[in-house]
Amino acid sequence: MANVAVIYHSGYGHNQRVAQFVLEGVKTAATAHEVVIDAEGNVSDADWAVLDAADAIVFGSPTYMGMASWQFKKFADASSKRWFTQGWKDKIAGGFTISASPSGDKFSTLRYFFTLAMQHGMIWVSQTVPNDGTLNRLGSYGGLMAQVGPTSPPADIPQGDLDTARAYGQRIAEFAHKVKG
Ligand SMILES: Cc1cc2nc3c(=O)[nH]c(=O)nc-3n(C[C@H](O)[C@H](O)[C@H](O)COP(=O)(O)O)c2cc1C
């Protein structure tokens, strides 16, 4: 079974909820590892070891001011240690984000995850659930997007967004299994 790590930051619980559904999808076809970036942007040594051992890494951050949170960026900058040796080369990668506005510039965050993955020599997995108005209602194929209004709690995230997150996690796990066995 492939190993898939889902690493994410969440300031107020919304992205954490999305991450739970990505993880649920991963678990259908791979061993899932949850790695949380804390409020100071730190990841434990044990969690770095989990990332190093993973066949696939899924990046997650809320979109803040049109980009990943500074806590995620601190983690990304710290990953430069792996970049020097191309330690994550050929790992599979994907990403997810949530924001409050319908667009909210979420694509900027996904594009950053893609660039980070390319710097590491990773292989990016697209999001393939078609937009039927409920599933993938935001029409995102470069990664997973979710959205809920600025005053809404995590429990109000539309189920279609969460189901799409689950399907994306499953796709990454199945692809990891296909490539890595
Ligand atoms: C500092 C900050 C910046 C934000 N910037 C954006 C933004 O650029 N676009 C947007 O649509 N929502 C923005 N939001 C709203 C969050 O993306 C949204 O509330 C998200 O669900 C928060 O996820 P979290 O609870 O996991 O932190 C911002 C929120 C904060 C706190």
TrEMBL record:
Going by the entry's taxonomy, the superkingdom of the source organism is recorded as: Bacteria
Q: What is this protein called?
A: Flavodoxin family protein
Q: Which organism is it from?
A: Amphibiibacter pelophylacis
